[in-house]
Amino acid sequence: MHRLAVEVEGLEYRYEGAQQPVFSGFSTIVEAGDKVAIVGANGAGKTTLLRCLAGAALGGLAPTRGTVRWSENADIGTMAQDVHPDFDSDDTLTEWIGRYTKAGDDDQMVRGVLGRLLFSGDDVRKPVRVLSGGEKHRMSFGRLMLGRHNVLMLDEPTNHLDMESIESLQLALEKFAGSLFLVSHDRQFVDSVATRVIEVRAGGVIVDYRGDYERYLASQGIE
Ligand SMILES: Nc1ncnc2c1ncn2[C@@H]1O[C@H](COP(=O)(O)OP(=O)(O)OP(=O)(O)O)[C@@H](O)[C@H]1O
Ligand SMILES: [Mg+2]
User: Fold this and answer.
1) Whole-prediction pTM value?
2) Residue 58: per-residue pLDDT
3) Interval between CA 154 and ligand 2 midpoint (Å)
4) Residue 1 has pLDDT above 70, yes or no
5) Structurally, what CATH architecture does the domain formed by 1-75+151-223 represent?
6) Which ligand lies nearest the alpha carbon of 44?
């Protein structure tokens, strides 16, 4: 029997003052370990959907209709499309990442995580606010690594990343045993990681496809 990660029923989100909801009537079931790609054009509503799934408790949105029910043991880690607000701080890299350690994580472990993110030596004493866009994204992955979440929600995580960093993220996500919700416009990346596709279409229709991205495109007549 498959374990349920989240059950979504009749989900709708309408921004205050907007004439139309971004989407409505969306229901789905996601099983633990599913890797869901959320795709669609700019402005279709991918970020809005992801934030509704995360829920208000995680800085997300409370749906205007419908419900999102997570399994009891779900431990959700999120990475926003824009990570810059998280780095408006005078903390050094070591101090910043140190805020996300758990009991038992020592300095060596923190240095190890920074090293895997390719930060070492004098780098770790820089204030986080001076980091480049790609470096901020790499630090955000470090925060998620320390969180040991069993659900990850990543909104366009490959933006700003160089090819080497995209490859290592791809490998990490392929190995990740938890559930994944991934918004991405990077077809190759989605192809290699996702086991399911949810497409948000303009006009508020959400298409839920149980199969990988390649098969999804074929089903839409796109090769
Ligand atoms: N705070 C807001 N108030 C009103 N409308 C909003 C708000 N935030 C987003 N929208 C609108 O909701 C729609 C969906 O936006 P959303 O950010 O979810 O799109 P997206 O699919 O993530 O796009 P992108 O690929 O550019 O990231 C857009 O038309 C956007 O203008
Ligand atoms: Mg978005």
Assistant:
1) 0.93
2) 86
3) 10
4) no
5) 3-Layer(aba) Sandwich (3.40)
6) 1
